[in-house]
Specification:
heterodimer, A: 224 residues, mainly alpha, 0% strand, B: 225 residues, alpha/beta, six-stranded mixed beta sheet, four-stranded antiparallel beta sheet, 8 helices, 10 strands
């Protein structure tokens, strides 16, 4: 299966590099949203709960843009059929798509987090960065698992642009809650503290549950 | 050995019946030509045989395996050339074929061999979106036979191809390939010339099933009236 995942992942990244249809849009959306918040809140900086909430909600909506595009090339260019005709484990497609989405999210965060720190965040991010990266990684795993599942479900429907966010957003709310709560202490104006273990556990558990659900359901989504 | 055994096959899309009561048998190495007007069910039949659609009634055995239960065992033994080339427009011919070679566990030397065979080597590093339809169709032929399938399912395989290109791909998908073939065609003369068995469909129902020697162009033309 590793060989198949590698082939699929390579193809995904090549297509994205050539089309630039997902990551630039996601990143631009995130940065634009921070600019809008900067002016709409009538304040120069945010911290604590508000800062964490803005970061996670923005990342969530930016991620949805990537989720919506995840299977489009396959659906429009017959890639699904090409894959289904091959004698390979179909779980490889789930893994490759989740890794692709994960890669998109990493690039998004490489751009969005510094932009957030520059445009909105009050307290300096430097010290809290290792913990923040850990929380983001946990959140990304959940978004990748749920996003891949939802994208596979939506792409074969006529209303895929609507169905993706409609199904994805409610399922991703716990990721945003867990992520924001875990991030909030890192953005405290005075004495930043480590994220509460229970929110990290919540995120980890949610990732695990949806990883297993995606694994169990994915084959059926590809079936006629 | 029997390559295809279909008995009472039915398939519908919602309320609409796409195929009904289709029965046929085809020996290994033989060619079945399927004729019928647009919407007759030809593509649906190919997709069922390719394991991409489930039959809703009847029994289907492909290369000795019952569908859909044993679909996994025939995937990789079937080559499908449909209306869509099943290739990514942003990737080059070489990248597309390498991708499929990896999925099928085929040695990458085969990619070069096929690019030569369909005369695309010179433009194999250009994205597909920059190539003509005929060229893309030739690459799609290469993709369909990349893994040396026993059964070829061909939906109007020569569309977009000029006579020289038809000659070029004939050793791969023509009678000379020695493979069992199912060809959907709108060309009575060409289809009959290649066929051992002829199936005529109209509105999803079989109206003609015969050895090719017993069928004339007039009977095929009647299907389209």
């Amino acid at each position: 299966m590793r060989r198949t995942v590698a082939a699929l992942l390579r193809k995904e990244l090549l297509v994205e590099l050539r089309t630039l249809e997902s990551v630039p849009g996601m990143s631009l959306f995130a940065v634009t949203t921070f600019v809008v918040f900067h002016f709409a809140l009538s304040r120069n900086t945010v911290e604590g709960d508000l800062g964490a909430g803005i970061l996670w909600v923005t990342l969530l909506f930016a991620a949805i843009l990537g989720v919506n595009r995840l299977f489009v090339a396959d659906a429009e260019e017959g890639g699904f059929d090409g894959f289904l005709l091959a004698p390979v484990d179909r779980t490889a497609l789930l893994v490759a798509k989740a890794l692709t989405l994960l890669a998109y999210l990493l690039v998004l965060e490489l751009i969005a987090v510094p932009a957030f720190a520059l445009l909105l965040l009050g307290p300096p991010i430097g010290q809290a960065l290792p913990e923040l990266l850990g929380v983001l990684a946990l959140g990304d795993l959940g978004v990748a698992a749920i996003g891949t599942l939802v994208a596979a479900l939506a792409v074969r429907t006529r209303a895929r642009d609507l169905l993706g966010p409609l199904l994805g957003l409610p399922l991703l709310v716990p990721v945003v809650i867990g992520g924001a709560r875990a991030t909030s202490p890192l953005f405290a104006l005075s004495h930043p503290t480590a994220p509460a273990a229970r929110w990290l556990l919540t995120l980890g558990l949610y990732d695990l549950v949806f990883g297993l659900i995606a694994y169990a359901l994915f084959d059926f989504l590809l079936e006629d | 050995m029997t390559a295809l055994e279909v008995e009472g096959l039915a398939r519908h899309y919602g309320e609409r019946e796409a195929l009904s009561g289709v029965s046929l048998s085809l020996d290994a190495g033989q060619t079945l030509a399927v004729f019928g007007p647009n919407g007759a069910g030809k593509t649906t039949l190919l997709r069922v045989l390719a394991t991409l659609l489930r039959p809703h009634a009847g029994s289907v055995r492909v290369l000795g395996s019952t569908l859909p239960e044993q679909s996994w065992s025939v995937r990789g033994r079937i080559g499908l050339l449909g209306h869509e080339p099943l290739l990514y427009r942003e990737l080059t011919a070489r990248e597309n074929l390498r991708f499929h070679a990896r999925l099928h566990g085929v040695d990458e030397h085969r990619v070069d061999e096929l690019l030569e065979a369909v005369a695309v080597s010179g433009r194999s590093r250009e994205p597909l979106r920059t190539l003509s339809r005929g060229m893309v169709q030739r690459i799609a032929v290469a993709r369909a036979v990349l893994h040396d399938p026993e059964l070829l399912l061909l939906d109007e395989p020569y569309s977009n191809l000029d006579p020289a290109a038809v000659e070029l791909v004939s050793p791969l998908i023509g009678a000379a390939s020695g493979r069992t073939r199912v060809i959907c065609s709108h060309d009575p003369a060409g289809g009959l010339a290649e066929a051992d068995v002829v199936l005529g469909l109209r509105a999803g129902r079989p109206v003609l099933l015969s050895g090719a020697s017993g069928v004339g162009g007039a009977e095929i033309a009647e299907l389209y009236r």
